[in-house]
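Hi support team,

I've been running sequence recovery on a batch of backbones for a student project. Most finish fine, but this one hangs at about 90% for roughly twenty minutes before it completes. I'm not sure whether the input is malformed or the queue is just slow. I've pasted the structure tokens below so you can try to reproduce it. Let me know if you need the job ID as well.

Thanks,
M.K.
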């Protein structure tokens, strides 16, 4: 581990970012929990004063970064070669230009570090291409595979976030659920609420006290004791598709949070972000991530 002395840095084009995101981008590889602890304890100062993690940094702000140690990525401590992870992400990219990369993220890889995960997609990209200010445009669950958009410039990030706020982004997910999907259920419009289990794990449930959430579903193929569905989320709540499917009586196969019995022990979460449509440059573009082999196992001849 390399020790880093105290540093004073001045904010430039990064203005407008939250303080926590600014630090995460600058202190690459440092665990998210350590960064939040630094801010909470007042070790990080903005123009000589304490600041919240949600503070939006301004051009010319002077940020005090306290002494800290750089930790190796999780893959390095376990003897795995992070360069292979980086090369794997790039080789499976479905789109790549100067402002945007759309990855076909594998199941089991977190999009960012935190909650016991040292290295995610964005940390991997930043470590092996430090000259590019990679930022997540959106998030998908660790166990979900498929389309993940990552901005390569602040300008692109803000433009794409605007599209999400205006509801101009379209997504399709493929999923295999346990049981026969209820006839006539095409839209699940149920509010979702986050909560925490006694062991500290975060969960989501249907609750009138929650945030509005809506998912459209369509049956792709009936598989006897399972059903292949397409899902089109109209909102972007945490675990939305997983909870809406389970609340309809058909949890997703392999869901270790909201399924049970054989469905839970399937081997992987059978949820894949197949398509992502957003505006790039002058017009809309649709990106498609090929279905993983586990889905092909369920495909039946028409």
């Amino acid at each position: 581990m390399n020790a880093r002395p105290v540093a004073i840095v001045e904010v430039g084009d990064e203005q407008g970012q939250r303080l926590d995101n600014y630090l995460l981008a600058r202190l690459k590889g440092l665990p998210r929990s350590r960064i939040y602890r630094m801010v909470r304890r007042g070790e990080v100062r903005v123009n000589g004063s304490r600041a919240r993690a949600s503070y939006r940094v301004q051009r010319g702000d002077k940020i005090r970064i306290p002494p800290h140690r750089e930790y190796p990525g999780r893959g390095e401590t376990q003897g795995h070669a992070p360069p292979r992870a980086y090369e794997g992400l790039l080789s499976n990219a479905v789109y790549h230009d100067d402002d945007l990369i759309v990855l076909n993220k594998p199941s089991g890889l977190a999009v960012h570090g935190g909650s016991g995960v040292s290295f995610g997609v964005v940390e991997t990209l930043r470590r092996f291409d430090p000259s590019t200010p990679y930022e997540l445009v959106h998030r998908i669950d660790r166990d979900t595979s498929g389309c993940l958009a990552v901005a390569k410039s602040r300008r692109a990030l803000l433009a794409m976030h605007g599209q999400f706020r205006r509801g101009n982004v379209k997504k399709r997910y493929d999923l295999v659920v346990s049981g026969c999907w209820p006839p006539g259920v095409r839209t699940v419009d149920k509010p979702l609420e986050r909560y925490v289990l006694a062991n500290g794990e975060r969960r989501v449930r249907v609750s009138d006290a929650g945030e509005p959430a809506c998912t459209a579903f369509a049956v792709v193929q009936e598989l006897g004791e399972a059903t292949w569905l397409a899902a089109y989320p109209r909102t972007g709540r945490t675990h939305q598709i997983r909870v809406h499917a389970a609340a309809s009586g058909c949890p997703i196969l392999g869901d270790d949070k909201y399924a049970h019995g054989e469905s839970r022990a399937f081997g992987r979460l059978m949820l894949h972000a197949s398509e992502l449509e957003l505006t790039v440059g002058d017009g809309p573009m649709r990106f498609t991530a090929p279905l993983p082999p586990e889905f092909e196992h369920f495909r039946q001849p028409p």
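--
Follow-up from support: It reproduced on our side and the slowdown came from queue contention, not your input. The chain has nine helices and 17 strands. No action needed from you.
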